[in-house]
Amino acid sequence: MRLFSVPVLVLSTIFGVATLANSTDLTIAIVNNGHMINMQKVAKEYTAETGVNLNWVSLEEGVLREQVTSDTASGGGQYDIINIGMQEAPIWGAAGWIEPLNFGADYDINDMLPAIRNGLSHNGTLYAAPFYGESSMVMYRKDLTDAAGVMVRDNDSWANIKAAAAAIHDPDNGVYGACLRGKPGWGDNMAFITTVVNSFGGSWFDKDMRPTIDSIQWKEAINFYVDLLGNYGPPGSEGNSFNEILALYNEGKCGMWIDATIAASFLKVDGVAYAQSPNAGNPVGANWLWAWAMAVPAGSPNAEESKKFIEWATSKDYIKAVANHPEFGWGSVPTGTRSSTYMYPEFQKVAGFAAAEMAAIESAAPEATDLKPYVGVQFAAIPEFPEVGIAVAQEMAAALSGAKSVADALAASQAAADAIMSEAGYY
Fold first, then answer.
1. Thinking of the domain 11-134+290-351, which architecture would CATH place it in?
2. Rounded CA separation 130/84 (Å)
């Protein structure tokens, strides 16, 4: 089995000499999502107190994954701190690509939500500290559903979701019934698509880790996805991921959005309501589990300073720093990581999404099952998954745009996944 699936990744070089930097300068690769962007402003306080200069490299999600993976696995030394998630952290920790994290008693690691902590650990050792955590849920305009006489319920059927989308779809007035991810990437369109496949009773692999993308469950799920978004979504959906849809929603153009719970922190439209993710009869895996976390590449010359910054940036004190920041406040604190965050009355007062977010995180089911014989909800926790996911993501985007039929896209996806898994030595 290959350790990882990107050709440039050579584990033997991970302890190679990294580019040296001033010990008071840290270069941090982050995803260009709202909470990460806010951190750049809040962290000026850290620099003022410690003298540590922070150089930020903010990248679109897919680009971040590609660059961080390549640099970390090859020992490039470009970054002192990297944003990674639950797919990478246990695998990279086991491989020795990232440093274990051990913090002081004041950090209160037991305050961390168990599902998030477990997903970023290997054999009980934490390898990445969560900056924010998330599941997925429905965010919808209740004013539009009320006006149309339809309801969106917790764990609704996909048939009812489609009916609601059809009822509120009003493109002549700039409102689309459903805005969903379509941009290709294993963490972009495939994050949402995988939960749909799960809910239809499908999975990425069987018990022998052979791809099952040619199954009837995948066919039903992808036909549903393409039909729903093609008929009731915005034009050009194959180019939309989190940030693009967030902008559309805040412009009043989306009636319904099924995506990361963290999005609720950034919605500016009045009358938003929340519901647990829909399913087609199988609720296990219908809502994902993820955390954007911070890790230190192994062999970094600035490892100790990097760990100190991560300890601060993922602490209770950081939550309070955001809450007390003049530009932000309690409605902008990163969520989904610590139980204590949800206990502050000030947070409860402004976070109408909090109960729905916590319910989604607690109901996510990353454990392996007979139906899904691998760890992970919207991904499979194996080294080869990013390569498989990227290949399938391109095919799903082609099906959504109409460049390929669903049948052809699924056939090509099955062939690509089978070739990758076979070459990796699974069978």
1. 3-Layer(aba) Sandwich (3.40)
2. 9
